[in-house]
Amino acid sequence: MSDAAPDDAELLARALVALNRHGELLRGLGQVFAAGGHELYLVGGSVRDALLGRLGTDLDFTTDARPEAVQKMLRGWADGLWDTGIQFGTIGAAKGDQRVEITTFRADSYDQVTRNPTVEFGDTLDDDLVRRDFTVNAMAVRITANGPGEFCDPLGGLAALRAKTLDTPSAPQVSFGDDPLRMLRAARFVSQLGFTVAPRVLEALLEMAPQLGRITAERIAAELDKLLLGTDPVAGVDLMVQTGLGAVVLPEVGEMRMAIDEHHQHKDVYWHSLTVLRQAIDLEDEGPDLVLRWAALLHDIGKPATRKHEADGGVSFHHHEVVGAKMVRKRMRALKYSKQMVDDVSQLVYLHLRFHGYGEGKWTDSAVRRYVTDAGPLLGRLHKLVRADCTTRNKRRAARLRSSYDDLEARIAELAAKEDLQRVRPDLDGNEIMTILGIPAGPQVGEAWRYLKELRLERGPLEHDEAVAALQEWWNART
C-alpha cells in the first residue's frame, strides 16, 4: 500500500484483480456449493491479503455446510482431501497446485482458562466473523457459481485495513481472554503488515500479557518465527517487549534494556540488537533467513549477566558470547525448537565476537582455518552477522571494521582455493590410523584422529608420508 491511504474503491478493485487470478478455482467451488444448496465465502486472511494485493495460493473459506457435507460435495471436485481439522469443522482440499481449507461457520465459546474452545457450529456468517481475532481478518467475499460476489464487512475491517490499524471485533479483553495467543499475533501482524494496534488493544495487551503463559511452547515458537520472518520484525519485537508479552515468552530480549553498550553509541544493548537485526536483514541475499534473524536478535543476550563497571568508568561484558550461547540454548529448548535450530543459533552467538581478535590481519593461517572450521556450514551467516554487528556511528571506525572483515574474507577465499576449508579432515582416516599404529578400533583411534585434525588445522594439508611420520612421532611420545 502507498503512503497515501487508498480509498475503498481502490482497495476493492485491487482485491477483485487478485481474486480473478483464481477465477477458475473460485467458480468451480462456487458451483459445487451452489449445487449442494449451501453458502460459501472466502474469509479471513485470504480476503485481507486480496485487498492488500498479496494473495497467495492457500485460500480459506467458511460455509454453512457441516463438515461431513463438505467432504461429500468435494469428493468429485478435489484432487485430494484431508480431515485432520475435522474436529474443528475444517476440511482441507487440493486442486492442482492450490490448497483450500473450508470451515463450517463457528460460534465457539471459551472458558477463559485454556485456549481450547468448546467447538460450536454457527448458523450465520456474522456469528463466524465476530469470533475472529482482528477486524481486518473478519471480512468475507461470497463465492457464487460465477465466482466472487458480494463483499461482506459487518465489523469495519475495511476501514481498519485502510487505516493500517489492528482492532478486535469484540472488546479486546474478551477476545484475548478467549485466546491469549491473539496478543502475540498482534505483534506478528505489526511485523508482517506494517500495521499499528488500536489504543484499546494496546491497553489490553499491557493488562493481559501474563495470560500468554497459558499457551503451549510450540504455538509460541510458531508465532515468533512468523514475526521474525515479517517485513519489519523490529516493530513486532518492540511491541512485544513494550507491552510485557516479551517478558512471558522471550524475557532475555527485554532484559537487554538494562545493559549499556560498551561503545556508548546506542541507548542500550536492546536497541543495538534491534539495529543489528535490521542490518542483518539488509544483508540477506536469498530471502528471509530465520536462523540469521534469530542470531542477530539474540547475539548479545549474555551482556546483562556479564556486565561489569571498570575502574576507568567504562563498562565491559567479558565472555558474554559464551554466556549468551548457553542462554540461547536454554531458551530455544524451552520453546521446543529442533536440535539443529538450537545448535545453529547458539553457535552463531558463540562465534560472533571471534572476528574482533583479527586485529590488523595478523591471524595465522591456522587461526583462519579454525574460524572457518568452527563456523562450518554457518560461515556465510557468520559473515553477515559480524558485518551487521557494526553499528558504530564513527564512520572511520566503521570503515576500518569493514576493511578488516573484507581482508579476512579475502584470506578465507585464498586458503579455500588451495585447501578444502569446508571439509577440514585429518590427512589419514581411521582405517589407516589402525594399520599404521597396529591398534584395534576404540578410543585410541579417536585420540589419534583428533590429533591429526589439530595438526591439519595448524599446518594445512600434509603429504601422506609427513602425516604418517607425525602420527608415529605423536604415538611414540605418548607411550
TrEMBL record:
Keywords: Magnesium, Metal-binding, Nucleotide-binding, Nucleotidyltransferase, Transferase, tRNA processing. Coiled coil: none annotated. It holds the Pfam family PolyA_pol_RNAbd. GO terms for molecular function: metal ion binding; nucleotide binding; nucleotidyltransferase activity; tRNA binding. Residues 265-420 form the HD/PDEase domain. One of its GO terms (biological process) is tRNA processing. SMART domains: HDc (SM00471). Its cofactor is Mg(2+). This is CCA tRNA nucleotidyltransferase. It comes from Mycobacterium dioxanotrophicus.
